[in-house]
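hey so i finaly got around to running the thing on Hepatocyte growth factor-regulated tyrosine kinase substrate from Arion vulgaris. pasting the sequence first so u can double check i didnt mess up the copy paste, my clipboard has been acting weird all day
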Amino acid sequence: MSSTGSSNFKSYLEKATSQLLLEPDWNLVLKIVDCIRQGHVQPKAALFSIKKKIGNENPHVSMFALQVLEACVKNCGPPFHTEVAEKEFMEFLKKQAKSGADPVKEKILELIQTWSHAFRNEPSYKAVEDTFHLLKMEGFKFPALKEADAMFDAETAPSWKDGETCTRCRVQFTVVQRKHHCRNCGEIFCGRCSAKRSIIPKLGYESEVRVCDSCFDKINKTGASGKKDDDLPAEYLASPLSKQAQVSKMVP
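ok and heres what it spat out for the 3d tokens, dont ask me to read them lol
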């Protein structure tokens, strides 16, 4: 873990949980996810910092921190899951659910229920399911479970590959010819072969991110085939993601 990477993470987290924000800054959230996935900050240290923000007395800061946490659990894989599923962290969330403002409480209950369902077959994450059942026994009312949101364990963002040439056109990377990763498949590409952007609902990317040409076509094939909205999952149609246009944008 580099000191620069750690410093960047703290800066991104500070900005992503600012009480001055009117809505989540998904670009910053994505950078936080990248810092963890690339090893610039260890999962334990990252969660410690996020935990402090969740415990902030300002409910807006707490809510933004919970959204950061949600994105990290969806995209940072088992190393981060292990830290979140620790009994100590579950106890912290339980305490926040009991003492926090209503929106904070509702978001925590939503996350715990989602994780409990997602990790139900993982014995090492038993603390999550135990916490869910304890809160239920104590009379907490949980929202309706959206199973689509609990499928991230099978749809964890891929590990990033490394290399000296573009996966598609085989051009050699140089100081000028920079390398880029496709957020959907994790392969490495030159700028020309990864110039498109798209949201990736299954991985929790709610703002458009860089993808390779092949993945862009796969992700957006539904729109290209003229599939009607009626054929799409209800959970997706009801989400903010369905309102975002999946259009190609060139990366500067």
